[in-house]
Design a protein that fits this description.
Layout (H helix, E strand, L loop, with lengths): L5 H8 L2 E3 L12 E2 L10 E3 L12 H6 L3 E4 L12 E3 L3 H16 L3 E5 L4 H12 L5 E3 L9 H6 L8 E5 L7 H9 L3 E4 L7 H4 L2 H8 L11 E5 L17 E4 L7 E8 L5 E7 L2 E7 L4 H16 L4 H9 L9 E4 L4 E4 L6 H11 L6 E6 L8 H13 L5 E5 L1 H13 L4 E5 L2 H8 L14 E5 L7 H8 L3
Parallel strand pairs: 2-3, 3-4, 4-5, 6-8, 6-9, 7-8, 9-10, 10-11, 11-12, 16-20, 17-18, 17-20, 18-19
Antiparallel strand pairs: 1-5, 12-13, 13-14, 15-16
Helix pairs in contact: 4-9, 4-10, 9-10, 11-12, 12-13, 14-15
Length: 465
């Protein structure tokens, strides 16, 4: 890894070397946090996690030829220990990642916002890959550990890094921006995620705007011009934002003639300073049109043609747990259970309400909404009651408020509530019921915050008969 020598690692972390006197100029081969991936000359960061402490695996890493990055001196009491001792392994990892990224000098496109970051990241990476070699965030590696681990996957051959950056507390985005120093920032929206810690949408805007603290001079800022908070952002460090949107006709990047293609996505005419072109985004919902506009703005910013932008949007992959359509012989399942907040919940329900056939929503609790938790669940329930749904099932104590509001809005809507996932699973697996919960050819939306573990419901639905 370029210039990632033991000497430089010790210098940027303020670390002390153990057993590495003859390896000061050795470039480590990789940086890992999983001891099972340890290899010769790799750097293993011993992280204290919720389930395991990496310091317990330092001996086997060193025996495999790896070098340990540790904060606990006691784990080095064995022959052949080779390590860099630091005050905090996590802080050291962040400093090493920032150093490594500077050695490669690869521009970063940072994806931030409340809702749609991952889909926007996928679309943006797909578009930019039409003209560049792009490395993108995989999975949920968007926090203060995941972002450095993504950076360590970069090679000198890469030309752009598209990095998703997620937070839920003040100061976190500042630290992520200090690591990445993004050249371009793409902002999706300001929603209701993490109100428990950030207080209000203004607090969310303030926290996420910390990304501008380390934006590169002469960089680019791409914002959702239909978002009432983002539209207030003025010039930042001399950089004038570029806006995208659907409703705001002043936006530089716009979509017109939007047409739903059902589960196949949406088509629209993309309007840009470089001209106009018909585009198809291969995932349903108006929110995906917004995400595609953000990706298009990034593509044009980096000099791609309209045709490259169109092809990149069309080729974007679907994501497990994010409105992924699964068809069985009995049901059409919409797996959207990776996470949830009021904005994304309403967006998914809105799509479900437009689909043909019998429509079923299985919804669960939304987390980190602060003091307005019950009110926000009721807000989603009222919205659901206005849609053309045939059955609403909720799981969780908070979601009972959602169910109550839906029933009040539409007394004719069939509503069922369960306290725990296991209760619903028992109903789904009951083959003796005279009136089964679901019917053949139903379309079933499954959505909740990640802690609800709704993936179990999706798996049960795959086998439902």
């Amino acid at each position: 890894m370029k210039n990632l020598t033991i000497k430089n690692i010790a210098a940027v972390t303020g670390g002390i070397c153990y057993g590495l006197e003859e390896k000061q100029n050795l470039e480590v081969s990789a940086v890992v946090t999983d001891s099972r991936k340890a290899q010769k000359d790799c750097l293993f960061a011993a992280i204290k996690g919720e389930r395991a402490d990496g310091h317990h695996f330092v001996r086997q890493v060193c025996q495999a030829g790896g070098i340990a990055l540790v904060e606990n001196r006691e784990c080095l009491d064995f022959p052949g220990a080779e390590a860099v001792l630091v005050s905090s392994t996590l802080d050291a990892i962040k400093k090493i990642a920032a150093f490594y990224l500077r050695q490669l000098a690869i521009p970063v496109v940072g994806i931030v916002g409340s809702v749609g970051k991952t889909s926007t990241k996928e679309l943006t990476a797909s578009v930019l890959s039409r003209g560049y070699r792009v490395l993108k965030t995989e999975g949920n590696f968007n926090n203060e550990l995941g972002v450095p681990l993504t950076i360590f996957r970069l090679t000198p051959e890469d030309q752009l890094a598209v990095l998703e950056m997620g937070i839920n507390h003040f100061g976190e985005m500042h630290r992520l921006a200090e690591i990445t120093c993004p050249e371009t920032v793409v902002f999706t929206n300001i929603g209701y995620s993490h109100l428990e810690f950030l207080g209000s949408r203004d607090g969310i805007l303030k926290a996420k705007s910390e990304v501008f603290d380390f934006i590169r001079p002469g960089g680019h800022i791409i914002l959702n011009g239909d978002d009432d908070k983002l539209i207030t952002v003025q010039d930042v460090h001399g950089i004038r934002p570029v806006f995208y949107g659907i409703k705001n006709q002043e936006c530089t990047f716009r979509a017109r003639e939007i047409r739903s293609l059902g589960f196949s996505g949406s088509s629209f005419v993309l309007v840009t300073p470089a001209g106009e072109i018909p585009v198809t985004v291969p995932a349903p919902g108006i929110h995906m049109v917004y995400n595609a506009l953000a990706a298009a703005a990034a593509g044009i910013t980096y000099g791609l043609t309209l045709e490259q932008v169109r092809d990149g949007i069309a080729a974007a992959p679907s994501l497990s747990g994010r409105f992924q359509v699964i068809r069985t012989d009995y049901l059409t399942i919409v797996d959207d259970c990776y996470n949830a907040n009021p904005g994304s919940m309403k967006a998914s329900l809105g799509i479900l309400g437009t689909l043909p056939g019998r429509r079923v929503a299985i919804l669960g609790d939304m987390g980190e909404l602060g003091e307005n938790t019950e009110a926000l669940h009721r807000e989603v329930g009222s919205y659901a009651g206005k849609l053309r749904l045939d059955l609403l099932c909720t799981v969780g104590t908070l979601s009972r408020k959602l169910a109550e509001a839906a029933a009040e809005e539409n007394p004719e809507l069939s509503v069922r509530s369960y306290d725990r996932v296991e209760e619903l699973l028992d109903v789904l697996q009951d083959q003796t019921a005279e009136q089964p919960l679901l019917q053949k050819n139903d379309t079933v939306l499954v959505k909740a915050s990640h802690f609800m573990n709704f993936g179990r419901i999706v798996e049960a639905l795959k086998n439902y008969r």
